[in-house]
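[Backbone geometry]
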Amino acid sequence: MTEKEAQILKKFMDENRPPEDIRTKLDIGYSYENRCIELHEIRPDWKDNSIIRHHPFARIRFVETQKVWNLFWHRASGKWQAYEPFPASANLEELLTVIQEDRYGCFKG
């Protein structure tokens, strides 16, 4: 991930995280590995508050040969599916805006 892309992702996180006073009960985070950004919800387990769960809701994968980011959403079945209304872009910020707007309720429910 380039420095510019890291800044874009940081800005997205800053704008979309819940207020600080509830972050122990609900927050969002991300991981980056092998050219893949995975966004996840962070919350305590509903039965045991001492267990913290990470529930993925979006995946953005960079395809080096095409210089494009592909966007996926996490289905209830546990499988990742290409986000058909807007499956790819060369612009990471554009895909993060699609996730933020969530017009079809695929990312935030």
